[in-house]
C-alpha cells in the first residue's frame, strides 16, 4: 500500500466557536421566517439563499444585492458557518478526506472521490452508528449523536470550498454526486437528512438532481418507504448476505427487519423503475458470502425489483475479523449476477491509503463500543490509532 500522500494542514484552526445561530441548514421556509423576524420581507430569504448556496458566500458584507443596514443586522444576529477542518488528506489516487470538527468538538469524516466522468462526495449522517455491522469500522464506534442538517449540508459546502466550486456550475462539476454512505445510518436521522438533502436539491442553490443523490441504508424497513415518498433520491441497500442466518451476523439490524420484509419494501419502493434502479451493495468477504451458490440465490431474491448490484471488495481495518474475497471469486460472482441481467460492477477501492474507503471511516478521537470489547465479533479496535496513519504536514 503506497503512502505517498500529500496532506494539507487544517484550513481553519480557530479554537473559539461562535454561539451565533448558523443560517446554513435552515429550510427555505425557516429562512423566510428568520428574515421576517429581522423585520424584512420574506423575499430577502431568496436573495440570501442565492448568496449562500449558489455563490458559497460566507461574509454578509460581500452580499452586495442586500442593503447595508440589512447586512449589518444579519451579521449582528447570525453567522454562515462551516464545520472546521481538522485534517485534510489526499490519497495517491486523488481521493480526498476531510476530518471535520463540529462545534461541540466531535469529529466526522467526509470523502471526495474524483472519477473521469463524475465526482462523488461521501457524506456522513451521524457521529458513529448505533448499528454494529461486523465488517464495518464505523460499527465499532458508539453512536455519539445525530448530525444536524447544518452539519450535513456543511460537509457539502466545505468540500466545495476546498475544491473551489463556487458559484454552482451547471455542468462539469467536481462534486456531481452525493452518496449518504459516510458514517452513520441515514434513516435513523431521518428529519435532518431529509432537510439537508432538500437543500442540496434546491434548484436555486446547490442544485443537484435527485438522481445524483443516493441514500444508503442497512435496511431500516419503515424508513425506506418514507424516504421514497418524502426525499425521493436514489436508494442503495446494504445487503451483504442472502440468508437471514448470515445477515443476522453481518448486519445485525436484520434480526429486526429480516430479508423478506426488506425485499418487500424494495419491491414497493416509490419511484423505483428501470431507469431508477435500486442499488444493492454487497461487500465481498472471503469464504463468508462469496460463493457461486450465493450469487445465484441473490439473483432469485432480486426478481421483480429494478435492481443493480454493487460488489464492494472488503476494505480492511485494524482488528477486522474478515478478509477480502479473491479476485477470481469476485469475478465469478459478478459473472453470475451479470448473466441474469443485472449490472454488477465491482467497486474499485479508493483512498485506502488514507483510510477513506467504504467502511473505513471512524473518527480518530472516539472511544470503542463497550459491547465490542466485551466479546463482540471483532477484537478490540485500537483507539485513535490508524495503522499507517500519514503524518500531517
Ligand atoms: N450506514 C449506511 C451507510 C454507510 S456504509 C449503510 O450501512 O448502508 C456504506 C457502505 O459501505 C455500506 O454498504 C456498508 O455496508 C459498506 N461497508 C462497510 N464496511 C465496509 C468495509 N470494511 N469494506 C467494504 N464495504 C464496507
Ligand atoms: Fe452503521 Fe452502515 Fe457501518 Fe452498519 S455498515 S455499522 S449501518 S455505518
Write the layout of secondary structure elements.
Elements: E1 6-8, H1 28-37, H2 44-55, H3 68-77, E2 84-90, E3 96-101, E4 107-114, E5 119-122, E6 126-127, E7 145-146, H4 149-163, E8 177-180, H5 190-201, E9 213-217, H6 221-230, E10 234-238, H7 244-250, H8 259-267, E11 278-284, H9 292-302, E12 307-313, H10 327-339, H11 370-373
Helix pairs in contact: 1-2, 4-5, 6-8, 9-10
S-adenosyl-L-homocysteine (SAH) binds at residues 133, 135-136, 181, 184-185, 216-218, 238, 281, 283, 312, 314-315, 358-359.
Quickly count the helices: 11
Q: Trace the largest sheet across and list its strands.
A: 1-2-3-4-5-8-9-10-11-12
> Which molecules other than protein and nucleic acid are bound?
S-adenosyl-L-homocysteine, iron/sulfur cluster
CATH architecture of the largest domain: Alpha-Beta Barrel
The number of domains: 2
Largest beta-sheet details: 10 strands, mixed
Keywords:
single chain; 393 residues; alpha/beta; DNA polymerase, domain 1; TIM Barrel; 2 domains; 10-stranded mixed beta sheet; two-stranded antiparallel sheet; 11 helices; disordered N terminus; disordered C terminus; binds S-adenosyl-L-homocysteine; binds iron/sulfur cluster
Descriptive account of the structure:
- The chain is of the alpha/beta class.
- The protein folds into two domains: 22-77, DNA polymerase, domain 1 (Orthogonal Bundle), CATH 1.10.150.530; 84-372, Alpha-Beta Barrel (TIM Barrel), CATH 3.20.20.
- It is 29% helix and 15% strand.
- The chain contains eleven helices and twelve strands.
- Strands 1-2-3-4-5-8-9-10-11-12 form a ten-stranded mixed beta sheet, covered by helices on one side.
- Strand 2 and strand 3 (96-101) form a beta hairpin.
- The longest helix has 15 residues, at 149-163.
- Mean pLDDT is 87; it is low at 1-15 and 364-393.
- The structure holds S-adenosyl-L-homocysteine and iron/sulfur cluster.
- The site of iron/sulfur cluster has 10 residues, from loops.
- Iron/sulfur cluster (SF4) binds at residues 129, 131, 133, 136, 138-139, 184-185, 218, 238.
Amino acid at each position: 500500500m503506497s503512502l505517498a500522500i500529500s496532506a494539507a494542514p487544517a484550513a481553519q484552526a480557530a479554537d473559539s466557536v461562535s454561539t451565533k445561530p448558523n443560517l446554513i441548514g435552515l429550510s427555505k421556509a425557516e429562512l423566510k421566517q428568520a428574515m421576517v423576524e429581522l423585520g424584512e420581507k420574506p423575499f430577502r430569504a431568496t436573495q440570501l439563499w442565492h448568496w449562500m448556496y449558489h455563490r458559497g458566500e460566507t461574509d454578509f458584507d460581500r452580499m452586495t444585492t442586500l442593503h447595508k443596514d440589512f447586512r449589518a443586522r444579519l451579521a449582528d444576529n447570525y453567522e454562515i458557518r462551516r464545520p472546521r477542518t481538522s485534517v485534510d488528506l489526499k490519497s495517491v489516487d486523488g481521493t480526498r478526506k476531510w476530518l471535520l470538527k463540529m462545534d461541540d468538538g466531535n469529529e466526522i469524516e467526509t470523502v471526495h472521490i474524483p472519477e473521469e466522468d463524475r465526482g462523488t462526495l461521501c457524506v456522513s449522517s451521524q457521529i458513529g452508528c448505533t448499528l454494529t455491522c461486523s465488517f464495518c469500522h464505523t460499527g465499532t464506534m458508539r453512536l455519539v449523536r445525530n448530525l444536524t442538517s447544518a452539519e450535513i449540508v456543511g460537509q457539502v459546502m466545505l468540500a466545495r470550498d476546498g475544491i473551489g466550486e463556487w458559484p454552482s456550475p451547471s455542468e462539469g462539476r467536481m462534486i456531481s454526486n452525493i452518496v449518504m454512505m459516510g458514517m452513520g445510518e441515514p434513516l435513523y436521522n431521518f428529519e435532518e437528512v431529509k432537510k439537508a438533502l432538500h437543500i442540496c436539491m434546491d434548484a436555486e442553490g446547490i442544485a443537484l438532481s435527485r438522481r445524483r443523490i443516493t441514500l444508503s441504508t442497512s435496511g431500516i424497513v419503515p424508513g425506506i418507504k418514507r424516504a421514497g415518498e418524502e426525499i425521493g433520491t436514489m436508494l442503495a441497500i446494504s445487503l451483504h448476505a442472502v440468508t437471514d442466518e448470515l445477515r443476522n451476523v453481518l448486519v445485525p439490524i436484520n434480526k429486526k427487519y429480516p430479508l423478506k420484509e426488506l425485499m418487500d419494501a424494495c419491491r414497493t419502493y416509490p419511484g423505483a423503475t428501470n431507469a431508477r434502479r435500486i442499488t444493492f451493495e454487497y461487500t465481498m468477504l472471503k469464504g463468508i458470502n462469496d460463493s457461486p451458490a450465493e450469487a445465484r440465490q441473490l439473483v432469485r431474491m432480486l426478481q421483480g425489483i429494478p435492481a443493480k448490484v454493487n460488489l464492494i471488495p472488503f476494505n480492511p481495518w485494524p482488528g477486522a475479523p474478515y478478509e477480502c474475497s479473491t479476485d477470481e471469486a469476485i469475478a465469478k460472482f459478478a459473472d453470475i449476477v451479470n448473466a441474469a441481467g443485472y449490472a454488477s460492477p465491482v467497486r474499485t477501492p479508493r483512498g485506502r491509503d488514507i483510510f477513506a474507503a467504504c467502511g473505513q471511516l471512524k473518527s480518530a478521537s472516539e472511544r470503542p463500543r463497550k459491547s465490542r470489547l466485551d466479546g463482540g465479533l471483532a477484537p478490540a479496535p485500537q483507539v485513535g490509532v490508524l495503522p499507517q496513519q500519514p503524518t500531517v504536514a
